[in-house]
Amino acid sequence: MKGSLRIGILPTIAPYLVPDFIHHFRNAHPDVNLFIDEKENASLVRELRFGNIDIAISTLPEDREGILEIPVYIEKFVAYFSSECSQAQKIIASGSLPPEQMWILREGHCVPNGAMNFCKNRDIGNHVYEAGSIETLVRIVDRNGGYTIIPELHIPFLSDRHKENVAYLNVTPPAQRCVSILIKDDFIRERAVNAVLETLKSIIPDYMMEERLKKHKIKLR
Description:
Elements: E1 3-9, H1 14-28, E2 32-38, H2 41-50, E3 55-59, E4 67-81, H3 88-93, E5 102-105, E6 126-131, H4 134-144, E7 147-151, H5 160-163, E8 166-168, E9 176-184, H6 190-201, H7 211-215
Parallel strand pairs: 1-2, 1-3, 5-6, 5-7
Antiparallel strand pairs: 3-9, 4-7, 4-8, 4-9
Helix pairs in contact: 1-6
């Protein structure tokens, strides 16, 4: 495979994928000029439609006319709480998420189900600071108390001490996000899509992957 490949990726996904993605992809496809850009969901869809990027790695956008979604993996969200809040772990684990104690990420907390759709309810959470990164939120919680919601793939980035402040969420429906490959519905570069998929499979834990993609390649036509 030769030529260029332009990929857009959601900023709340990028930290967990991009460093390893570049490493694996360039080793497997040294003749491809790889370009990766971080953009929010609406911008990714716009760039796909204009042809400024070939592939997006993102959650499913609301406006997806003309966009083909290929679900790749499902990632759970977990709570990260302050060690100063002695009762936080029990409260969160029971499924109770007190909104006044939650610190919110700007777009990353748009979890697409009714129980956890924080971004559409501006009355939920602490909006003193609209954080742009998970790492910033973790530091805010450590310093100011309360808790936040972080993606499961962020856990390995935490120190052993900070991992003790993680609680899995007992909510229905489950708090999770589906991360997909997005392309225009007339995109024909099947080998490029499968090269991206194979690279993601080398990074994402097997239990998160969509079952049908573990054994089968993507067929566009």
